[in-house]
Structure formats: structure tokens, C-alpha cells
Amino acid sequence: MNNSPLVSIVIPTYNHAPMLQRALATVIEQTYQNWNAIVVNNHSTDNTLEVVASFNDPRIQCINFHNNGVIGASRNEGIARATGEYIAFLDSDDTWFPTKIEKCVAVLDHGSDLVCHAEYWIDEKGKSRLVVYGPREAATHHNLIYKGNRISTSATMVRTTLLKEVKGFDVSPELISTEDYDLWIRLAAKSNKFAFIDEPLGEYHRHDNNVSANIEKHLAAELALLAKHFSVNAQLENSLARRRRKALAYYGAGRSLHRTNKHFLALKKYARAMIIWPISLRLYAAVLLSLVGIFTPKSK
To answer: pTM of the predicted model, to two decimals?
Structure first.
């Protein structure tokens, strides 16, 4: 591995000791071994430090850092300390499959600046579904802004020079939960060398505590992100395209609420989307599905 590029892995964490242990174990098990891991610990009050020490691996570094509730700040601290040619992100509650680093490095070594692989989304009940990101033509600068995010943080590896050129994550409070999406847009403004692997190489573990509130916060953050990039890229599209994209944000929030059986709340989001952009067949289909959900008796 002496001639293989070093990969720096940035792992923000806070009071996730058991999950961090699981995540780090999947790093240790990688077939590609030329890596170092930077655990950015937001002064956890559990046994996080003991978990890291238990691996007794000099490649794993743990630093204490106050992020003031902004996970992007922790990731930026990890980026600043990274020494690898490539940087991978791994949230402490997610996991990788053994060939993840090996296969991502192979793609980047062939000239790509960013690679993102498919992953399984695992809910709190252990149910999984495969999520495939991209494709490349959907992850251009223009399409990321106007058609939505197509990249996942724990599934992504980036060339370090490019990441540092755009100064990492935007830590503005109004972008919390969309700071990764914002980063992909800014990276795409600098490079069109994004690649995607359809093979699942990891697991993203979802936690659905207070779902409705989280969906509302994410919608507000997405709208703030759009306002930011619309102002910077005003020349890209006309006002109709911007209206259509805002409607898509409300539609997405409605779909998320629908999936958690919050049908009345979903209808409110769909109504807002209709006011902004009424020309959407899938929007009317979503309304019908939520109405069916409301009037369908719940099984006991």
C-alpha cells in the first residue's frame, strides 16, 4: 500500500459511543488499509473516548471540538486536519462495507474529483431499502440546484484539494441539515468530474425522532439554500424555473410526511406547492394518495 494514496476519514460524533464503535469497526475491516481517521468529538458525555482508545490503532485520531450544534463545523475541523489525498465522510451512526474505500479510490485514481456510491437506508425497525445516487448527468451544478440533491455524505469521497478550495461546509445556522447539499452544489461549480457507483457500499441509519419537526426544519433549510444559490446564480434560469424548484421542495416535504402517515400535514405542503407551481401531475397524484391515506381505516 506504500504507493496508494492516503485517505482521510472525517467522523463527527456526539454521544454515539456504541454506534461509533460499530462505525470504526467497519473502517478497520476495510480491504484498503492506507487511511487515517479523524474522530471529531463534540465533547461527548458518554464513553466515546474509551471507545476510540479501545481500537488501539495509531491511524485513528480523536479530537475534542465544540461545534455549537453545527455538524458542518465538526466536519470542517476534520477537513483542516486531513492529510490524505482524498477525504471520505462517515457519520458515527453509519457503516461501510469492506470494499468501500478500495472501490472509491479506484474511481478517483482514474481522474474523478468526487465519487458517491449507493447505500442501504436502515430505519429504526431494521427495515432497509436500497438508494442509488446520481447519475452523473443529474449531478451537474445546474441540475443539483434545480432538480435536487443526488449525493449522500457518508457515501461520498472527495479529492482534498477541491474540497479545501471551496472551504468545506457552509456553517450558517439557516443551512443546518442541508449543508452537505450546499457543498455538492459548490463543488459542482468547480468540477464536472463527479462519478457514481451503483453498487451499495454502506448503510445509512435513519433516526425518526420527532419526524414532523425535522421535516419542517429541513424544508426551511432547503428554502434558505435555494435563496442562497438563486441569488448567486441568477443568470442560470428564469423566475419560472425558480418557482418550479421551490414547489419541488414543498412537494418533497409532503412526500416525507406522507411516508410517516402525516397525511393532513402532507396535504398542506402539497397545497403550498400547488400555489407556487400548479403544473405538476405527480403533485396531484400525491394529493390523491394522501387523501386515500386519510380515509383508509387504520389496521389495529
So the answer is: 0.93
